Amino acid sequence: MRAVVIGAGIVGAACALALAERGAEVVVVDRVGVAGETSSRCEGNLLVSDKAPGPEADLAIASNARWRPLAERLDDDRRDGRPATEFEAKGGIVVAFAGGGAALERFADAQRATGIRAVGIDAAALAADEPFLSPEVAHAVHYPDDAQVQPSNATQALLAEAMRLGARLVIGEVTGAIGRTGRLAGVRTSAGEIDADAVVNCAGPWSAEVAARLGARLDIRPRRGMILVTAPMPQRVFHKVYDSDYVGAVGSGDAALQTSTVVESTPGGTVLIGSSRERVGFDERPGVAPAAAIAAKAVRLFPFLERTILLRSYVGFRPYAPDHLPVIGPDPDVAGLVHATGHEGAGIGLAPATAELVAHAVLGAPTDLDPTPFLPSRAGLRETA
Amino acid sequence: MTHVAILGGGPAGLAAAQGALAAGARVSLLDEGDRLGGQFWRHHERLTDPRLQHAWHRFGRLRGALADGDAQVHVGASVWWAEASADGVRLRATVGDADGDGRTGLEVDADAVVVATGAHDLALPVPGWTLPGVTTAGAAQALAKRDGVAVGRRTVVSGSGPFLLPVAHSLALVGSEVVAVHEASRLPALARGWLPRPWELAGKAEEFLEYAGGLMRHRIPYRTGSAVVRVLGTDRVEGVVVAAVDADWRPIPGTEREVACDAVALGHGFTPRLEAALALGCAIDGDHRGRFVVVDDTQRTSVARVFAAGELTGIAGADAALAEGAVAGFLAAGGAFDDPRLRGPVAARSRTRAFARRLERAHGIRPGWTAWLDDDTIVCRCEAVARRAIVERADVPLRAMRLATRAGLGPCQGRTCGRTVEAIVAEAGGAAASVGFDRRPVLAPVRIGEVAALAETDPPT
Fold this sequence. Notes:
The complex is a heterodimer.
Chain A: E1 2-6, H1 10-20, E2 25-30, E3 45-46, H2 55-76, E4 92-97, H3 101-114, E5 119-121, H4 123-129, E6 137-143, E7 147-148, H5 151-164, E8 168-171, E9 174-178, E10 186-189, E11 192-195, E12 198-201, H6 207-213, E13 221-230, E14 240-243, H7 246-250, E15 258-265, E16 271-277, H8 289-301, E17 309-320, E18 327-330, E19 337-341, H9 347-363, H10 379-382
Parallel strand pairs in A: 1-2, 1-12, 2-8, 4-14, 12-19
Antiparallel strand pairs in A: 3-7, 4-6, 5-6, 9-10, 10-11, 13-16, 13-17, 14-15, 15-16, 18-19
Chain B: E1 3-7, H1 11-22, E2 26-31, H2 56-68, E3 71-75, E4 77-84, E5 89-95, E6 104-110, E7 112-115, E8 119-121, E9 134-136, H3 137-147, E10 154-159, H4 164-173, E11 177-183, H5 187-194, H6 204-217, E12 222-224, E13 226-232, E14 239-244, E15 257-260, E16 263-267, E17 270-272, H7 275-279, E18 284-287, E19 290-293, E20 306-308, H8 318-332, H9 343-363, E21 378-380, E22 385-386, H10 387-392, H11 398-405, H12 418-427, E23 446-447, H13 448-452
Parallel strand pairs in B: 1-2, 1-7, 2-3, 7-20, 9-16, 10-11, 10-16, 11-12
Antiparallel strand pairs in B: 4-5, 5-6, 8-17, 13-14, 14-15, 18-19, 21-22
């Protein structure tokens, strides 16, 4: 059994590892190499706090549980300069300003019913947990299971582990399919042809283009996100801290600029401030508007940021599906093609569970996850493709 | 009336301002320094020794043109954002001390911009180069030129390029003993660069000889084909190891000798400051061995309304910057390329372009220098990243390598180490990068609050 995994981002790397450790021969194909795009241009969120009850929340809960032992294993196996995942089970705190507390509490209540741990915290506890938070914050909920990895490093660690188990990495661009119509037998790449029993499309924002080159239709589009990074400083932010407006923006289909405040520290001492979402195609040069909007909201949350130095910013493209659910499973038209994409801003967190579903689709490996809601054949996806 | 913004107040920017004013435009010139002049005319109103300045009268004329014309000059202006559109160019800057309370925001909208951001001096890493007492040649020169201060009592100057000569000369004039100037290029390379077609050198050879005469007067030896390959000391510089190097700058075993000194000035050429041009969308050509803004004969970049002049189009020195700046400013203001007033600058520019090629041939960095590094030599100083870590991650995309090693993620954002990190990656078999470390969307450090002030509406409650 040989599987070609297209894309060496977090989802491709996780799929490569899941397939390799279940005995498949794995070839990963990427245009530039490991973590060359989206997975090196995001925050590394492993979140349950932003998930409304539903299939993605269930997947996030399952994936969150899988990340803990996985990160431990990757970090224990480090060698030859392989970076640490920087996994931190720091927990998230979602806050609301005056007037927003009731909505946040309703959202948290619904989440609790699905098994997400969401703990209300009072003003005194909040002041102890996040002493630099604005005193205007009126309400806060603690999500102990929210965690973080350094996404680029975690991707590099995952792929290195897959390669230790025999996976190969080919630097090249997929140009077409091998096989007769409706049945893939491999891929043509700029680095040569690769025969395969299964092809897994993990090309993130570019997975629609990859699908088209392989004779399939898939409606995945890029959504631009921007993140600000401050100069290193002594730690003053201790959890992942969100404004509760985050929830609305993630699920939104609005094309215009949307921002929602996420502030957190990294082991390097910098503070990450996210994030914006804009549907503007693959345009890498945003104007100043998203940076200004993110900065304004972050200062409102943590007033000390006012005089903190912005060192750099970066943008990345997130792959989104029209119904805002990941797309995981066999292509309905092309046999031998499996998709694992459309994770939007949640791909880092959802990667381990996604890989388990891919191993199920490709190898028939057992899983207790329900693949149905994410299948590429679902109605929410077919209408637009 | 056409409004031309000029980014940078060194020779290129000042000449551009003069050119734009001559063509009838209104000018806004922004420079992050406290005074105009850039690196070339770095000075202090009281402390500067006039013997250390070159072509000072020209600086006076350029300042005069600014003072007499329709020009707004903003010094201490740190441009952190630049964008170009079909309608015009917008620059955003902060003005005032980085940590002061009185810092203000400045927004400049213009019809065209001349990017004249110049270059940083480039020092290749050497084992021990993080010891106090080691500076870049440019820093040694700046301290001497502006403040009359010598970086040490006994200084060794090492690197490549004609710039080492004025640095040694300045050091001697401000009272340091200069033990020697070590030029890594060997005589055959120097001869290939400097000797053919002497008519192209108009003035350059005399300038070189003038500095060489200065070295002789101060009895400073100029040693070609040699380099400082190690800096010695525990808490600060106590000496250096000097070795002969081959044509590729690889140290020749058995030639090492120790030299006592308390300061080292390293200078291996210059790195153009490309971030503003990149933010504006300008096409870039080359790789880590030399990456520059692409311009045509009119100094136009690939982006409408954006012109570039000086070191960011090729390292060629102040004469080239003056000529390119004059053309760029005049054209940015709507002047015609065949205007008789441009004859002088255009002629000068063809000479200086030839000079840039000679400089590269004679003094360009050769790949063998990495042989003088140890595995644990710090390459990225901000984040203390050693060569070993970079080599171990050389096979991943540059962006992933940076995040894994943290090379180039510190306060200087790769301005100091970017090119050398890329060279080490290339030597270890990594893929060449088109833009590498030079893309910095935030052009200069800015406070989060200053960015927040640009938000279009108050945050919703």
